[in-house]
Every structure is written in C-alpha cells, then in structure tokens.
Amino acid sequence: MRSRLPRIIWTLVLSSSVLCLAKVEPWTDLQGNAFKGEPSEVFGPLAIFRTSSGGSRKLPWRALSPADCVRFIEAVSKKPTRAEDWTKATGDLTSDLIGRLKQRQDGKLIKAQLSGRPEPLLLVAFYVDNSEGKSWDLLGKSSAPFQELAQKYPGQIEGIQLGLNHSKEEHQNMALTMNVPWLLVDFTEQAKVQLLKDYSPAKGEFSLEVLSRNGVPVLSASNPTETEMQKVFADLGLLLELQKPTNTRTWADRAYYLTALQPVLHRNDAAGPVLVGDPLVPQGLRERKIFRLEARIEVGADGKATQVTIKDDASISAPVAAALADALKKAAVFVPAVDHGKLVAGTYDYLLEIPR
Fold it and tell me: pLDDT tens digits, residue range 61-82?
C-alpha cells in the first residue's frame, strides 16, 4: 500500500471545527524537565507550548513520550487550522488583527488589504518608540533581513509595527519615513489587541518579538543590538526551514511523532507505511534521463526498509537501479504500517514522477 505523508494525515490530525478553551497542564519531557503549558501548535518537527508564565517552550517530538505526542495532538486538533486567506484567520492573534492593520501605499497609510493573503504562520512584531533613537535603528536594520525571509518563504511570515508612548502622528510618521515593508497596527486599535499588549516592553524600551499565529512568543529580543537583531532573523530563518518536508533534519522527529499517532488514528482499521523522507533528488535523476521511478519497498514494524525492488525500466541501467535501491533502503524514512492499533510490517508502493 502506498501512503505519502502530508495532506491526508495532517488533515485528519489537525482539522476540527471545534475551538476549545486553552488548558494549561503539567508536562514532563524525557529528560525529566517538568513544566506547565498549553499545547499551541505543530511546527514541523517541533511541538510548541504556551507556558503558564506566558512564554513558550519548543520541544522536538523525540523529547516527548509517544503518549504525550498523542496527548498534544488531541489538544491542538480541537483548534481550527491555519486559513488559506487571512480574512478567514482562526489564530488567536491573526484573527484579532483583522480590520486593525494598515499598509503603506503611495506615501500614505491605508487600510490593509488582507484578502488574498494567507494567514501568516509567524508574525514579526516591532515595538518602537518615536522618541527612542534605537527604535529607528531597529526598523532600518530589520528591513532587509525581513524582506529576504518574506521572499524566501512566501506567505509564511508578516511583520506588524506597534507604537509605544507616542502620538498617532508619530506612530504613522515612523512607518512612512522608514518605508517599512510590513504592516502597521492602527494606532487607535493597538490597545484592543491583548495578545500584543502582553508583550509590550517597559517605557523607554523597544523590542523585537516573533509570535505564532496564536500569539505565542517563539523568539524575542529586548532593546536589541544589531547583532541581536541579526540573530533573531537568522533563528527565524532556521525555524521556517524546519517547516519544509524535504528538510532531512526534520525527518526523524516527524516519523517519531507520526509513529506514535498512527495506532491511535487506526484503532479500528489498517493503513500502509507512510513515507516521511525521500532521499532521492529529482534533479539528479533528471540529469540521468530518468523521469519515472517505481519501486516496491518492504517496511518492517520498526519503520526500516528491509527490501527494495526497482521496477524494470529501459531508462534505468542495472547498476543505477541497484544504487537507487540501496539509497532508498538506507536513507528513506518511514512510519510503519498499522493494523487495528498495532504497528506491523507492510509494503510501500513507491512512485516518483519527474517533469521533463
């Protein structure tokens, strides 16, 4: 049976029309570190918690027991998923920002057009004060790295600027003078967005916060120097890179989490192995004039490939077929098959088609 990772499983696991109240509970990772937190969201190979102190904790899935992986997913599955259009956003923060944002256009600030934009995965919040010179530096030195990430990861991030201890005119002037590439929270609406108020710095200070769509702080820097600003954007880039299913560094944690989940999802039925990580690079195959590859892969109950049989194809020589089979056997990452809640050996029908 052939089963590839993303859509069907993520839809099963993460979608629900029911929004429940946040629940802070005690958790303990496999190193024995205890904390209290609310499961907030799945972030690729990471579980993100909102802690009882209002901060966050990011844990790789392998830091949690299989039972706690399931417990985490059962909690977040009661929350709506990220929306394709920001006007239909469901995140605690992103939904609260609808109708409260402005954007630059022709040297003026107008109501931000959110229709057609995906709900951001992460929001970069710039807390600035007109009277603090280094606030201006924060805006000037953040523009280039922010735009670079926004272009590299389209639709994943958005910036929002907030004003501290200054007038409406000063609030608008900062954004227009600095030609900021992000959005501006309407001055008269700022106080109404509690999740943003919660992270406002003290008077005379400024800050850079990276918040999830649910308003959970995942990165931050208070009164940052240029070096500290650069580190925030570098760390943000690393986080966004973890979202890519092709990132080999994430495969082990994704497989661990799904291996814990599959027996729960399939208590009363069966499902074949799931391919989490494919080591074959399409460009390399294209260079060899291979545009279609079929294989039958036997996967053990431990998720390891035990045998790979490449389907005969005139475009694939025997030595190349052997090399491809070896690569799939050694490096492909699977979640094992499951039969009525029990992990079992199974067969995966591999198919890779490469556009010419």
Answer: 999 999 999 999 999 998 889 9
What does the DSSP 8-state code read for residue 294? E
∠ at Cα 148 (212, 355), nearest 5°? 95
Q: What's the pLDDT tens digit per position in 240-276?
A: 999 999 999 999 999 999 999 999 999 999 999 999 9
Backbone dihedral region for residue 215 (phi beyond 0: left; psi -120 to 50: alpha; all else: beta) = left
Count CB neighbours of 13 within 10 A. 19
| Residue whose structure tokens are 């609030």 | 171
Q: Which of 295, 349, 287 is nearest to 322 (CA)?
A: 295
- Tens of pLDDT, residues 173-216: 999 999 999 999 999 999 999 999 999 999 999 999 999 999 99
pLDDT tens-digit series, residues 299-311: 999 999 999 999 9
Dist. CA 221–CA 227, nearest whole Å? 11
Q: Are 280 and 356 contacting, i.e. CB atoms less than 8 angstroms apart?
A: no
CA distances to 66, 221, 306, 349 from 296, in Å? 29, 50, 11, 5
Which helix H or strand E contains 302, and what residues bound it? none
Sign of CA dihedral 9, 11, 14, 16: negative
Q: How far apart are CA 147 and CA 136, in angstroms?
A: 17
What does the block give as tokens for 265? 């999802």
Give the span between the Cα atoms of 290 and 351, in whole angstroms: 12
Biggest CA–CA distance in the chain, Å, is 73
